[in-house]
Amino acid sequence: MAVPKRKQSNSRTGKRRAHDFLKARELQACPRCGAAKPSHVVCGNCGHYMGRTVVEVE
User: Which residue among 30, 34, 52, 58 has the highest number of C-beta atoms inside a 10 angstrom radius?
Assistant: First the structure.
């Protein structure tokens, strides 16, 4: 069975994990109401998506 010859240093471990953090979602303005929303998602404020109303909002 393959076993590492030496312990991996904290510095090397940190370098490997440098890109493992969570990234914030990209938000875009809704073209109809201007509210911030993730792309390719129905607007929670007005229910608009791809040029038409998908969800009726009160």
Answer: 30
3-class DSSP string for 2-53: CCCCCCCCHHHHHHHHHHCCCCCCCEEECCCCCCEEECCCCCCCCCEECCEE
Report residue 32 CA to chain centroid gap.
23
pLDDT tens per residue, range 4-51? 999 999 999 999 999 999 999 999 999 999 999 999 999 999 999 998
Which residue range is the domain that position 53 belongs to? 27-58
Query: Is 40 inside a domain boundary?
Result: yes
